[in-house]
Amino acid sequence: MIDRKEVRSLFKSKGVPLTHQRLAVYEELQARHDHPSAEDLYEKLRGDYPSLSLATVYKTLQTLHAMGLVSRVDSPASQARYDAVTAVHHHAVCDACGKIEDVFDPRLDDLPAPKASGFKPRAHSVHFHGLCAACAEGRRSNAARRSHHG
Amino acid sequence: MIDRKEVRSLFKSKGVPLTHQRLAVYEELQARHDHPSAEDLYEKLRGDYPSLSLATVYKTLQTLHAMGLVSRVDSPASQARYDAVTAVHHHAVCDACGKIEDVFDPRLDDLPAPKASGFKPRAHSVHFHGLCAACAEGRRSNAARRSHHG
DNA sequence: TCTTTTCGGATAATAATTATCCAAAAGGAG
DNA sequence: CTCCTTTTGGATAATTATTATCCGAAAAGA
User: Fold this and answer.
1) CB-CB under 8 Å, B70 with A75
2) Domain membership flag for residue B133
3) Residue B74: inside a domain, yes or no?
4) Does A52 lie in the same domain as A100?
5) Residue A81: closest CA among B37, B82, B120
């Protein structure tokens, strides 16, 4: 758990101004574990900060994410991608160009199910994040696709 | 590989009309493995079907997905969700109500990396899909959240 | 407190996706 | 093959999530 004092010094060390809004968003996010959306946070916080803007929540989340204080759940992909291969397989997503490769590996198909919590799993998928061969090799040409695909 | 004849009988068995557009989208999706978006498919197919509409591609993909002929890559979540827990952990997503639970299990933290293809992995995450305790128990009340969250 | 820089709020803009409406094509019976 | 009924496809408006823009306001440091 990162307390307020640590947060303050972390912002200072990175030269990022710590505003009331940023602290409020971060502390709200720390206090709950239901993975709220920007909208959810906005609805909750506007009670305490009536002048708060939804755009500010979005910008703040980007800032916190860039600092590594929060993480995004699910994919940052803005477009849905489809696949005619419905057999169980996994994916490797290139962070640089957005390319998605199939990963077939039987060792990934049978993973330990979530314990406790009463969750009934039906399926799972593993997403690897990293760099595809082309981008790892330094060919930045592919990066253009990123802006195109989101 | 599902050939045209099988596709035709599958549609018939489910009572879903098989149109030229549906067949075209499905066969194009079968022919490639770059996980195209609706937009990508539209751009490609409009050469052969000049009257094709983007909305039709979207509707067709939904139809094919509902029939289990194609799968969606990445998350179907329409809103980004955030988390103040940045330690390595995984997620269990309820297909009924959209709730996302954290899954901590060290056995999931060290999985075999994708072989070949030259992909350089930096991180990975496992997404379980299924039903949360409340939904599995039959409480449908939560389903309302789904439409709210997307 | 004063100055400079960066941020926050309001709102317009953008991007992806879905809803709407009617002509048109699919499926089945004869 | 033709007719009839039902469901789809095309064009476009609408919706939703997110980002950009512009200017007053707050933060950081001296």
Assistant:
1) no
2) yes
3) no
4) no
5) B37
Q: What are A71-87's pLDDT values in tens digits? A: 998 776 778 999 999 89
A79 domain residue, yes or no: no
CB-nearest to A74 from B41, B80, B117 is B80
> How far is it, in rounded angstroms, from Cα A66 to Cα A76?
13
In terms of phi and psi (left: phi > 0; alpha: psi -120 to 50; beta: otherwise), the region of B138 is left
Strands (E), B11-117: 71-73, 81-83, 90-94, 100-103
A96 & A44 share domain = no
Enumerate the residues of chain B whose CB falls inside 8 A of the CB of residue A73. 80-83, 91, 100
CA B26 to chain centroid: 15
Q: What is the dihedral of CA A47, A50, A54, A56, to 10 degrees?
A: -120
Look up the protein residue whose alpha carbon has the minimum distance to the C1' of C5: A17
CA distance A13 to chain B (A): 19
Of B129, B108, B104, B89, which Cα lies nearest the Cα of A107?
A: B108
**Predicted confidence pLDDT, tens digits, chain B (150 residues):** 889 999 999 999 999 999 999 999 999 999 999 999 999 999 999 999 999 999 999 999 999 999 999 999 877 677 899 999 999 999 998 888 888 999 999 999 999 999 878 999 999 999 998 899 988 887 544 443 443 332
- Residue that is written with structure tokens 């990022």 in the block: A16
* Residue B119 domain flag: yes
Instruction: Give CA–CA dist B52/B56, Å, rounded.
Output: 7
pLDDT at residue A34, as a whole number? 93
Count of structural domains within chain B: 2
Q: Which residue in the block uniquely carries the two structure tokens 């039987």?
A: A106
Q: Which residues contact B59 (CB under 8 A, 6 or more apart)?
A: none
Q: CA of B67 and C1' of D15: distance in angstroms?
A: 26
Domain that holds residue A37: 4-66
Strand partners, A124: B128
